[in-house]
Amino acid sequence: MTSRPEPAGLAAWNGGWLRAARHCPSPNFGPRPEGTVIDLIVIHSISLPPGVYGGPEVEQLFTNRLDWDAHSYFGEIRGMEVSSHFFVRRDGELVQFVDTDARAWHAGASCWRGRDNCNDDSIGIELEGLEGERFEAAQYDTLVRLCNALAQRHPVVHIAGHEHIAPGRKQDPGPGFDWPRLQAGLGWHDGCFPQDTLRGGAASA
User: Does the annotation mark 81 as catalytic?
Assistant: First the structure.
């Protein structure tokens, strides 16, 4: 008896772990509510310390191994337990911390498309960068491949920034993020994106 071949899009996955990513499991996750439809991607930006790139600190934060005394800024986030599903470094390297079937702790108090608690039904992607500054071409390339892979496994129909789901509280990824570039790379229709990010700048969602 021969086994059925895995659908082409899902061949990239081992359960909720993307094979193309480097895996760095985080303890900061939990179950999603029963019946959850995972249809939202949330884009964030992060750097530790702020504006410093290439070090191990973001991975250490998401795995509860950050030395809070190593930098003065870390005192402001001391004890924080957070995570994201994915992290895209400046050179395009992709790191995964949480199974996409699980609930990562990235969104906080939030609301989008009429639903609160976006952690419940979203996938969080952190880009190494500082809100307001530009991101690298390699990051957009990885982000496009990642979003397409996620859409092959989950019924994703929305993409938003942390600033959109938590307005006034969060500002990332900020004005340096090129939303039209992402939309052009994905080829997804306008309804997938926040209206104020579209080419030509429509009213805010």
Answer: no
**Distance (Å, rounded) from C-alpha 86 to C-alpha 189?**
23
Closest residue by Cα to residue 92 from 130, 128, 123, 122:
128
User: Which of 126, 128, 131, 163 is flagged as catalytic?
Assistant: 126
pLDDT at 9: 60
Classify 8-55+83-195 by CATH class: alpha beta
Give 198's pLDDT tier (boundaries 50, 70, 90).
Answer: confident
Provide the pLDDT for residue 3. 40
Please give the mean pLDDT across all residues of the chain.
92
As a whole number of angstroms, the longest Cα–Cα distance in the chain is 62
Q: How far is CA 173 from CA 133, 166, 176, in A?
A: 9, 12, 7
Summarize the confidence of residues 88-93 as an average pLDDT.
98
Where are the chain's structural domains? Answer: 8-55+83-195
